[in-house]
Amino acid sequence: MRKLRKSNLIKKIVVMLICFQVVVLAAQEQATSDFTLVGDNAITSILIDKKDAKVVTIASNIFATDVYNITGKKPVVSTKDSRSETTIIAGTIGSNKWIDSMIAAGEIDVSEIENQWERYSIQIVENPTSTIKKALVVVGSDRRGTAYGILELSRKIGVSPWEWWADVTPTKKESLSLTMEKEVSKSPSVKYRGVFLNDEDWGLQRWAALNFEPETGDIGPKTYAKVFELLLRLRANTIWPAMHSSTKPFYSYPENKFVADDYAIVIGTSHAEPMLSNINTEWKHDEMGEYRYDTNSETIKRLFTKRVKETAKLEGIYTTGMRGEHDSPMIVGEDDTDAQVHLLERVITDQRAILAKETKKDPSSIPQAFVPYKEVLNYYQSGLELPEDITLVWTDDNYGYIRQLSNPQEQKRAGGAGVYYHTSYWGRPHDYLWLNSTNPVLMWEEMSKAFELKSRDIWILNCGDIKPHEYSIELFLDMAWNMDDFNESSSVKQHTKNWASREFGETSATEITNVLYENNRLAYIRRPEFMAWSQVEPVTKEGETELTQFHYGDEVTERIDRYKSLIKATEEIYNNIPMYRKDAFYQLVYYPVIGASKLNQKWLYSFKNQFTAKQGRQSANTFSVLSKEAYNRIIEETDYYNTVLKNGKWNHIMTMAPRFLPVFAKPATFTVLNSENASLGLALEGYQMEVNDKVINSYADVLPVFNSYTKSVFYIDVFANGKGTVNWEAKPKSDWIRLSENKGTLNSDNLEKRIWVSIDWSKVPQGENKKEAPLGHDFQLIPPSYKVNSAIEFISEGKTTTIGVSAYNPKFEALKNYNGFVEDKGYVSIHAENFTRKKEGKEANWKLFEGMGYTNKVITALPRTSTPLVDLEEIKANSPVLEYDFYTFNFGEVDVNIQAVPTHAPFAGIGVRCAIAIDDATPVFVNFETKGRSEEWKQNVLRNASIQTVKQIVNKAGKHTLKIWMVDPGVLIDQVLIDLGGWKKSYAFPKETVKK
Questions:
Q1: What would the pLDDT profile of 832-843 be if each residue is shown by its tens digit?
Q2: Are 394 and 404 in contact (CB under 8 A)?
Q3: CA dihedral (506, 508, 514, 519) positive or negative
Q4: Which of 360, 728, 765, 811 is deepest in the core (most CB within 10 A)?
Q5: Which residues, other chains included, contact 403 with Cβ-Cβ below 8 Å and sequence gap of 6+?
Q6: How far are the Cα atoms of 420, 438, 883 from residue 348, in angstroms, in the given order?
């Protein structure tokens, strides 16, 4: 018994010792996870090695300044060890003696990052030296890896990458500490990641020359240093410098290239700048002759050679090939494609010979890029032979849709592939240089497609003047850094919310995200810069719009109201933003949203002015005033941005009228002069002109037919003609007619009112239900037994005007428990995401993307590597299919209109097709692909939509099913409109016709 007790006692002691050891270890672990940067009586220092790269010193000083901006105390950056409680030791493997000593002693393990591209680890080490008790050790695999690791600490203490470029002032704190576990970064998803400063004439160049860097009078080394700091904070590594003729060439300022090397930034150049040469401003015709390789190659090669000699010891990416001056095609004596291809091959061969001679390296070891942009894509597609080690940099079509990507064979190239993408563009069919109007989810969709198809070596974003492209720049570079964080379209919204939370606090993050998403949605339907409906070429009469003002609830007024709500929400958020972040909010959210809203309203009110003036409405004059007020608000906000914000820090950075295109001008408006006494005027939904009692047999006094299955609602505008006061009253002749208002007064303060007419269907007499009957495409075509007629009498100044009301209210047994789409006014409107059923395919399945498209949701078949199916029987057997149940009251031949996002085929063998059929008909192919810069392509990118129409037969009134099969993966379906002959002109499809 005693032995047993003794044994149990020993066991208990052992258990207690083990538990005590666990507690001690846990306590030690907890102790090592807390690192004080600034305390009551202490401040950490930063220890670096003078042998390390200059960028390590730069990043360390940036971080020290960030700490100072938060606490008022600045860590000392030193290259000498000193006695300290806590120290940050930062350095690159092989270039920092303290770090190398810890590696040798086994105190830190760098096996995961050693010899890797741009990776870092961060961990806390106890007693790394005899004089340091605790160190926060930042180790980089290379010089940029170290810099990214140091600046990751800035992120962790709450400093935004936009702390200088958007004045995101850090939150003040008296003390500052980090809770750290060991952190090891992954390899970047994309090797070279950066931006192209372009179209800088109206902002960045003027700001640098006139404000930030007047001593240079240009974008020079001081400006580039701030740009490079931003790139480091955003974990980018590449820049294509500004290259317009307004800016001197990057290499004309000798210090530029050394500043870039100090910041470890790789220099590349655009598609029009071969071999790091800026042809726009470096080519001197009077000295060098004509810029054509077929007749003047030796002079051109001398320019290339000069630049390679100058840059041979620096990091760069040499753009190979050649285009003409000012983004134009290369001049070639023979006007045939074969000759152009052979000449371009000769150019590339000569360029590689220059690289080999001047760098003393094998060209295959030197980063090179070939950008198949515009006509160069045609040369490449026509058989141009390109060395395997040159990186193919695919481009979008300037409007956000990637033209082509690597096919399976090209994906095996040693040089890999990349993407050059736009959020700013100068060119045809229309510029968008002022605001950032590229949809972030569209950018994600296109770049995730590029990543999936192995374009992972170079990503460059044409971001114009940087401002106001801040969010898109960060999203683009965050995707390039770690694409694993962006597996779903919802990842973009979460990224936006995280960004808003970081910049403005969690309290307002959701509201800000919603504002930005609504702004993006409206811009997707029509970019603000395209609202004048003018084009660069051909030039059309500005001021005309495809938005309807009298069908489907009035697209113009609906868009005005959307922007009113957006402005209200933005201003309310601004009022609640903490004072020290208001300037940041103004730059990142307020100005872009208000600018877009007011540019829209300027044109939308002018459209209202023109429309109402034709009807003689006095309100036309009010719309003229509102249009001018919107124009003046843009002037006021831009002036505030430039001259008041941050005491003029950003003066000259913002121009509200780049290139002075018609869209930025003050619209011409009409004035209605009417000396007659005021009288009541009426205008109805569905009719372009006002009700005119003098016209005999006019049908403009009848509202469109109300449909009991869609619960239709229509409007009547009451307005004042002439001067004075008008009293009016509306009297429905049946109790089932409802009005939003039934009387009122019109005067100079209230010139018109929109009255909404709806139906109380519980009170409408029921129509026949013996058989299905046509709804008809207008009032006159409906059989009398299926409609109920009544009217509304408008009474004013002793005069009565009668407006006909007709309700279609049959009760069909087939629709009793039906949930789906129904015909209304001669069409069926469907949002693609609202399918009745879907079926998976053999290789692919349907996926929903949120945040893009006219409905803010699109549906597509993924993965993009799925095999296209073109045999009809194989399609029906193996392709994923969407099914939409719909019900019609009419029958016959119909037009099925499919609206898709206007993407391009990734490569030959994959198209932009789907197949459709109604009921059991043979599927019909629908092809959304466009070629080159066709007129169809121009219209597609201006409206962010491709609409294709195919004929189908609806063989009887009643239930039917529309089927959509995948043919090619990745086609983004947005909306469907089945037109039985009743669809009137409108910019967007009418709202969904869902049975209610």
A1: 999 999 999 999
A2: yes
A3: negative
A4: 728
A5: 372, 377, 394, 395, 396, 397, 904
A6: 20, 34, 52
